[in-house]
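seq:
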Amino acid sequence: MKNIFFLSTGGTIASSKGEEGLTPTLNTEDMMRSIPELSKLCKIKSKMIMNIDSCNMQPEDWVIIAENIFEVMEDYDGIVIAHGTGTMAYTSSALSFMLQNINKPVVITGSQMPIGAKGTDAKKNLMDAFIVACEDIAGIFIVFDGKIIKGCRASKLRTKSFNAFESINYPYIGMINNKNIEYIYKPHFKTKEKIPKLITAYSPNVIILKLIPGINSKIFNALMALNYKGVIIESFGGGGLPFKRHNLIPKVQEMVKKGISVVITTQCPYEGTNLRKYEVGQKVFKKGIIPAYDMTTESLVTKLMWALGQTDDPEKIKKIMAYNYADEVKIKLG
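struct:
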């Protein structure tokens, strides 16, 4: 039997009703008692490292989770993490950068309903997560609603439905049906060729600005005054900035000259940016802007935080953002 380490961080899966609504109260043993058949699947050691709503999950907590994983990685065949769904994709993306050369399956799951609720999706999701953690694969994955998703490619698109997560601009790794896995896209398999590394340095000084028609360029003065080191601009369509009537390009160029790393992404979840297709994109591409390519918002945010934790040099930041660490980016035309 495989040896699996089970980490709990809280979330809906561990929640029960409190005076002000659902709140995490259950520990790892409580959750495992709800699924007695787990004992027939694998040997499990568990640890509750925090018990919070994932809305309260902060970058400091990603470091705690990464450190706990790295500490036990050599002693177990796989790791399962119970997590809230709200920021699960941010955590899975952050772990994809903080844990380099992972040679075990690290599987994150949660649920839309508490594990003790009637008709809950928690029991199936947790069982599926342990099934995947027993596989001879390597990497960070989200397992949810019978789907195996690359951790740095997942986004939560639904707030109530069981099929809350989708794989963005990347194939699903596989599907789980009646405890059987059908692989769709082969993941990396376990290897001892590379040594796992824990690299948790990050900078929280990153913000996303969502463009709307008519936005005032003075907003960038505020961002510069607040000393943000990384600014992600969610643009329209394939990416670009307006330059007629409300011209944003001079202010963005000013930020770049001040050493701020400015990234252009799109408000569309699928198919990524192409800053070379339209004039509005080419004008900013020539000003030192970093394209987001086809990265998810969650991966883009956490990667930029992580990159800024490694260096203050804007040119090195550009190279880190363009480098593919965990299948988080496929570069096409910018």
